[in-house]
Amino acid sequence: MLAADYDGTLAANGRVARTTIAALERVRASGRRLILVTGRHLPDLKSVFPLLDRFQRVVAENGGLLYDPANNEELMLCEAPPERLLAVLRDRGVPFVVGRTVIATWEPHQGTVIDAIRELGLDSQVIFNKGAVMVLPSAVNKGSGLGAALKSLSLSAHNVVGIGDAENDHALLTSCECGFAVANALPALKERADVVTHAADGAGVEELIEQLLQDDLAQYDSRLQRHAISLGIVAGADHQEIKIGPCRSSVMIAGASASGKSTVAASILEQLAAQQYQFCLIDPEGDYENFAGALAFGTGKEPPDPVAVLNSLRSPDNSTVVNLLAIAVKERPEYFSQLLPKLIELRTQTARPHWIVIDEAHHLLPTSWSPASSTLQSELGGMILITVHPEQISTAALIGVDVVVTTGPSASDTLRAFADRVQAEPPSVSVVPSQPGEALVWFRQQSPEAILVKTRETKAERRRHRRQYAEGDLPRERSFFFSGPESKLHLRAQNLNTFLQLAEGVDDETWLYHLRRRDYSKWFEQAIKDRELAKEASRVEQEWEQPAAESRKKIKQVVETRYTVPA
To answer: How far apart are CA 418 and CA 252, in angstroms?
Structure first.
């Protein structure tokens, strides 16, 4: 979406050139939207520019009034100017014009206006615009007005480029994903802008539009560092942070179980949530059931309703976690294959969700998977694939990955496996991860070398008691088997609930056999992926000479302390 100021930006001397109007028409024809954001009063604007129907919304009076041209509807976004302030300004000879929400005057009357506001004890602000002086309630500006316009359209500020020229456009540019200043803009706004056009006024807007239609402004992604997502810092260089773009990138996070890939993923998700980028996380095993900042769909017993998921995502304020735990393992790829095209369709309409995150990607996007259409293939950007086995993921899904993060001692082997799948030259690796919290990061299109990074810590550990491991159905390779010293038994525990039930019933010899081998803590760490639980269990295992009943009781306690297990 393009959000443009009027005077000094779209218009020169109050008039918009025909070439600028034609450029705006091309934006509309491309399927993008237009918003006009101006300090002018609406009647005045209509008199000088009768083509307001080209815009889906008009923010007038510097953020105080929202206008829908299609329905000719006005909405005041703040209260009207207080009569007592108007009376004082009249008494003091200040010339002004009153709108629905704004008082407009000119320099050098700002001092008198500020004194009046102070004397009356009003919660008002003075905003400047190249000689014009506007009075509005505090916190009302072009940025807040744009926010109201986007909310009415169910669109995200992360999909907006704004352009302006004056002091009152700072709030507009700050609110947008990318901010442009025309060549005739004030120096302070040029300094603030992400990009400054070569041309002035409407010609500068035309310049922006040509670039917008050419590549959706992808050429400026590297400049948008204020929105970048941090992966961590370069090992041994405390101040060199490694970042990825907040949209358009595709990332693969790969590594063995308990190697730290889930921590990397959680860190990225926390940053996306904090910056209000919308994501849809496909969660086959319920790992993220209560992730803060997202709405959860599906539980350990109830499958997620795809209609409810999509309806939730229609609001840019909602991110979602789609828990597939209640769906049989073999049926999960089919569920996902039906949901993904609908997510892509939503993207074509709204440019959201900004990120589609797929845990256990090797299962949901196996080597046999291929997109149903070339259109779907082209829309697979903005993805995060989390996996243990990159070599088992479809090449069609991997080919668009441009950032690879690998964790654990075998991180370099994982990079080679990925490179082999996409038929690329693997990166050179000078140092491999040697301790928790380290990863290799490879920017495929930018560098032939992988960088060792100390990854970010998550702000809050994911809560793991949710039904995922308590009641879910882990695959056989991640289940626990009570076999006993002579392998006479073959009792499978596919979740913690079953584990505790079987633990109560197996004979003492079998129980102690696994205890002494430290099989319980190994399973908790490698299959359940819970290091803290594994540490607690390891302490019990170290006391293997105690009676079997005592160790059973202690293991049960450490599990139930961290997990909700049905009675």
So the answer is: 9
Place of tokens 């149903």: 372
Tokens of 241: 């942070």
Q: Are strands 15-16 and 11-12 parallel, antiparallel or unpaired?
A: antiparallel
pLDDT digits (tens, 9 = 90+) for 305-352: 999 999 999 999 999 999 999 999 999 999 999 999 999 999 988 999
Name the DSSP letter for residue 236: T
Backbone angles phi, psi at 385, to 5 degrees: -105, 125
Half-sphere exposure of 108 (CA within 13 A, CB side): 0
CATH numbers and ranges of domains, the chain: 2-72+140-223 (3.40.50.1000), 78-139 (3.90.1070.10), 228-455 (3.40.50.300), 467-562 (no CATH)
The C-alpha atoms of residue 340 and residue 356 are separated, in whole angstroms, by 9
Work out the percent of the chain whose per-residue pLDDT is above 70.
95
Distances (CA, A) of 270 to 242, 277, 459, 519: 16, 10, 8, 33
Structure tokens at 203: 């010609």
**What does the DSSP 8-state code read for residue 406?**
E
Q: Specify the residue for token string 């089919």.
A: 334
- Dist. CA 216–CA 247, nearest whole Å: 12
Helix (H) or strand (E) holding 87: helix 83-91
End-to-end CA separation in angstroms for the chain = 53
For position 464, what pLDDT does the model report?
44
Amino acid at 396: A
Q: How far apart are CA 177 and CA 372, in angstroms?
A: 32
Helix 508-516 / helix 548-562 crossing angle, nearest 10 deg: 60
Give me 487's structure tokens.
């392998």
Give the SS3 label for residue 442: strand
